[in-house]
Specification:
Oligomer: single chain
Helix content: 40-55%
Largest sheet: 3 strands, mixed
Order of helices and strands: HEHHEEHH
Structural class: alpha+beta
Strand content: 5-15%
Length: 113
């Protein structure tokens, strides 16, 4: 959080929460969970208090401990992550961010391999 950019911590918290329900996907750090909830980010019930029924995915990054995620569609998430990993793997084989992006057939070919 870049709190110096906000009039106050409470203003930041209120503004962030005011648009929260417009998102499908939220990624927050454990520090941001603590800030937004004013609770312990290690506790699952605290994290889940951020959940909105319109969300498709809530990810909490925990620094060197990795991340946690919350979703209601586990199958779809696993498919998306498999595709994302295939695309990322292929993109490391060429120079340049855009030229290295694979098309769907290339990613699917790697997944089936």
């Amino acid at each position: 959080m870049r709190l110096p950019l906000w009039p106050s911590p409470e203003a930041a918290r209120n503004e962030i929460k005011s648009i929260w329900n417009q998102a499908d996907f939220i990624k927050v750090s454990d520090d941001e969970v603590a800030f937004l909830t004013q609770g312990d980010p290690e506790k699952e019930d605290i994290v889940k208090s951020l959940w909105n029924d319109d969300f498709k995915l809530l990810i909490v990054t925990d620094g060197s401990k990795g991340c946690r995620y919350f979703t209601e569609d586990e199958k779809k998430l696993k498919e998306a992550l498999l595709l994302a990993n295939a695309c990322a793997a292929i993109s490391t084989t060429k120079k340049g961010a855009i030229p290295s992006l694979p098309d769907m057939s290339q990613a699917q070919k790697l997944i089936k391999y």
